[in-house]
């Protein structure tokens, strides 16, 4: 499971970026924040899953680093979104 640091978040737009520890930058939408608050602090360490949307990888199911994923978190993904790997698809 990837982890990284939230480097940008605009609450008015609901979009942000996570700089992953592997050097990649991923976009995320506030609906992908697993605790349901739809807000997150810049500088927060997070773990996340990856999914593709319109051919680009995005961060999903963001949660505080070290916290296990909540199996009850279900986000209604729109058409065109799918997990990047089989492990994510099994969740």
Structural commentary:
It is a single chain. The chain has 91 residues and is mainly beta. The protein has one domain: Beta Barrel (OB fold (Dihydrolipoamide Acetyltransferase, E2P)), CATH 2.40.50. 4% of the residues lie in helices and 44% in strands. Strands 1, 2, 3, 4, 5 and 6 form a six-stranded antiparallel sheet that branches. The longest helix has 4 residues, at 86-89. It is globular, with a radius of gyration of 12 Å. 23% of the residues are buried.
The CATH topology assignment is: OB fold (Dihydrolipoamide Acetyltransferase, E2P)
Low-pLDDT ranges: 76-80
Main pleated-sheet profile: 6 strands, antiparallel
Would you count the extended β strands for me?
Answer: 6
Helix content: under 10%
Instruction: Tell me what portion of residues adopts beta-strand conformation.
Output: 35-45%
What general form does the structure show?
globular
Question: Between the first and last Cα atoms, what is the distance in angstroms?
Answer: 13 Å
SSE topology sketch:
Elements: E1 3-10, E2 15-20, E3 25-29, E4 45-53, E5 56-64, E6 81-83, H1 86-89
Antiparallel strand pairs: 1-2, 1-4, 2-3, 4-5, 4-6
């Amino acid at each position: 499971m990837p982890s990284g640091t939230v480097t940008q978040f605009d609450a008015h737009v609901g979009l942000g970026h996570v700089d992953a520890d592997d050097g990649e930058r991923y976009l995320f939408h506030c609906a992908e924040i697993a605790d349901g608050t739809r807000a997150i602090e810049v500088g927060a360490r997070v773990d996340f899953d990856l999914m593709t949307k319109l051919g680009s990888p995005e961060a999903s199911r963001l949660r505080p680093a070290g916290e296990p994923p909540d199996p009850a978190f279900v986000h209604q993904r729109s058409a065109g979104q799918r997990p990047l790997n089989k492990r994510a698809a099994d969740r």
